[in-house]
Model the fold of this input.
Amino acid sequence: MQFCSSICLTAKVPVRVQSLHMNSTTVNDPSSIAAVPVPKWSQKTIVLPPLKRGCHLITSKIVKEIQPDLSAFQCGLAHLFLHHTSASLTINENYDYDVRDDTETFLNRIVPEGPSAPWKHTLEGPDDMPAHIKSSMFGCALTIPISTGKLNMGTWQGIWLCEHRDYPTARTLVVTLNGI
Amino acid sequence: MQFCSSICLTAKVPVRVQSLHMNSTTVNDPSSIAAVPVPKWSQKTIVLPPLKRGCHLITSKIVKEIQPDLSAFQCGLAHLFLHHTSASLTINENYDYDVRDDTETFLNRIVPEGPSAPWKHTLEGPDDMPAHIKSSMFGCALTIPISTGKLNMGTWQGIWLCEHRDYPTARTLVVTLNGI
Amino acid sequence: MQFCSSICLTAKVPVRVQSLHMNSTTVNDPSSIAAVPVPKWSQKTIVLPPLKRGCHLITSKIVKEIQPDLSAFQCGLAHLFLHHTSASLTINENYDYDVRDDTETFLNRIVPEGPSAPWKHTLEGPDDMPAHIKSSMFGCALTIPISTGKLNMGTWQGIWLCEHRDYPTARTLVVTLNGI
Done:
């Protein structure tokens, strides 16, 4: 591993640190095992109803499904994994619908679709190969920190499901929670 | 964190939940510590042989390497991390070779290469700077859920290694398994 | 899950394995609980000073902040999560500044900006919608393996913060460490 560059060395404003949780002190003391928060795992499969082609905010849907488990974690990670190769998960703006609409516009401009597109894989329709490409561009998985029983995201962040097919189907997600 | 949008509120089809694992009940009871599944960690460095420029399905190769450890996890996460900046890992279609070929076509169309490309970083060959860009587009890491001793992916999902250099070399991955 | 393709089946060079850590042997033996490394969690919020539009190497800054905690982990994962939708995190080359500069050039060429751009979301300035798109292209999160107290990255890999706004602000990251 190599470190740093001229840019990060010359930054003048100090880095500020706001919070820290650590539970390693009693690890080697058998008499205090009960005091060590034992890590918990939770895993749930969620099936989302079909959503039309485009980008959709699904934060509240996801949180509603995992809330009972989520609230038990003081510190941890939430992992969302989509079981599909023609849709994607991303984190982006949670307020203005136009941002989702413009993102769909971008994806359609950057990935050719239709008779002039160069794809060999066309058996499943003209929107299928573009959907596969968009799925790898944004990815099918997210990992989000958990703090004090909640997803620890920024004020303007939300979870998006991007549906890349014209005739959408239900979409399956595996949500795995891990923490203390 | 802010929740929801008009779209997810108006979805008519109920979300279906299929499975749930949780092991928090005995955490504060010292007499039952043996009943709490103690989290396990496994970490392995795998070196893949050189693969030609393009997208390659490597699911079986990866699973073969981690199988003995993987089968011991009832619930967890598998993390794959590529040690390189000119190749990438992604999850996409596992059946039709054309999908991988079309994805390589897309990457080559979207990232300029050759004399007319605008890159300043050209010392390592005309394919090097495009390779770095493609690496950040798809990313060098994947996290996949583990359920009952197996990678819990969708029917059509596979793990791809995308080699972005013309003269490929062996590629190193660190695979970390964590779970109960 | 489906496995393999013609390509990975025909690879001639054997996969080499370099290291393995595993701690599952004593899990069901209550008398040996003290011998099982109890997983640790650490979570920290870091505020980075404003950085100008472009790609910046921040590895040393991040490592400096998490070093005291990081060194306590023999095996684990480090998760970095940016609290913003107009900047991104990625892993790429850590040596030549031109690689970062060329990546910024690529992002600006691929995402239209200015009067001719097709965006509806323009209230927050011409650079705002392009910034959201770039944020989803590279993503706002990274997961990196930890081995023997250090981030286990490749020789040429570094952590980049990509600032996509013209008038940057301080950026908040949540760093979560988990391991044994």
Chain A touches chain B through 67 residues (CB under 8 Å). Residues 39-113+124-179 of chain A form a domain with the Jelly Rolls fold (CATH 2.60.120.460). Confidence is low (pLDDT under 50) at residues 1-34 of chain A.
